[in-house]
Amino acid sequence: MVHLKVEEEEPNNAKRKREEADEMEDASSSDSSSSSPSSGSDDDSEEEDLNRHKKMKVIEQSKHPQGSESPHASGINVSADLSLAHEALAFFTTLKPGNADMTHTWATTLFNLKLLLNRLSNRDARTDKPTAEVTSQALEAAVTAFSKLERTAEVTEQVRALLAALNDACLKNEVLRVVFYRVRDELESLEMSNPRTALETSGMVLSFKELVDKIASLPSTEKPSRILEALDVIHHVMVEDPHCTRQAEARYSADVVKYWISAIPFQHELGKAYETYASSFAEYSTKIAGRTNQVGWKRLADKLHKLIRRRRKQTKITSCVPPTLSKATTRKRDQLMAINAEATQWRDGNFTLDQLKKNIKGLGEIVSYQAKDWDFLADVNVRLCVNKLIRCSHMIPKEEQREKYLKTLKRWKKKIAAYQELIKRK
């Protein structure tokens, strides 16, 4: 009687093949003898059946190429994946940001989630529904955890990487599209709600400082347009800084704006922009830690408002809109201001695609409008409006639509920049 170890497979070994051939002959011989009326007792028959069963398993295993996953091994992998999904779910639901070990475990758990998504996409999710469902729950918990973190460049990149892995898995496996439908929407919303990354915020801070230096060297007639641009930039910095990591820059801007209000010839549009800045500064102060700090910043915002009111009384207000503007030009200019105001409100992504499309179309009408009484390319509000709509267009989830609008807006931006550069050289 021959005893074999079923677990050991050597399909490429010539000796093993000869042994299997001999075993098949033995099995055939055993079948013949067991069918004879003069065969042994029932115990012998049971032992031969057991032997035959083992031999058939050896033969069946020899049919699988090396490295293929047997049903038993597949079951083990599924069980391991389910355990991995439960670990990820437990981590994100019990996450404590202050934990010293959080950073390493966070990175490891995110890696495991992406690994699970890759494995699930390569097998039939119908046969592994428990793992897919627990993975979905873990992803939802991850979205909740992400929403509580400071939106640094690293965190933003992690969100994008996880969303890319999820989209890739859903693309490969149609079943996963159904299982992950809700969490996929949640992750996309989270990615869209991210500020345009901390790197871009740093770029805006640098842009503000460069504008401040440039304004100091410009003649008085050119200062107002640049001040409007600088105020818009620092406004976005404060709005996109929920954790007040840019306190120093915000406080510095208050001193700069206070000087502009006092020293630069006061104009109607500048007055409105100053008031918007002072309100943003007051709102920013409510996010600062510590009651004493909040009171100090709020007091400074109130002083800015008082200074603006006093300057209005002291200065003869001159409107930026010439009184000789035609009705058609006035309508176009009012349309521009309305688009500008809406685009400012959309900084958090609270707009529909139809609204954005309508305003881009409206701006297109303004850009193509020709009049002797208004040079729109020289108007700083047109440039600000284009920049705001570009920011909004970056929030469109579908790449084809996003690139379509960005292409148009960037063409206008390039045209405006080239024209204003030409004016400077004259």
What do these coordinates show?
- It contains 17 helices and no strands.
- The protein has 426 residues and is mostly helical.
- It folds into three domains: 80-193, no CATH class; 196-320; 327-425.
- Helix 11 runs antiparallel to helix 12.
Distance between the amino and carboxyl termini: 105 Å
| SS field, number of helical segments | 17
Overall pLDDT confidence = 75
Q: How large is the radius of gyration?
A: 35 Å
* Run of helices and strands: HHHHHHHHHHHHHHHHH
Characterize the quaternary organization of these chains.
Answer: single chain
- Let me know the number of strands: 0
Structural class: mainly alpha
Strand count, sense and closure of the main sheet? none
- Tally of domains: 3
- The stretches of 5 or more residues where confidence is low (pLDDT under 50) are 1-15, 23-43, 54-74, 317-323
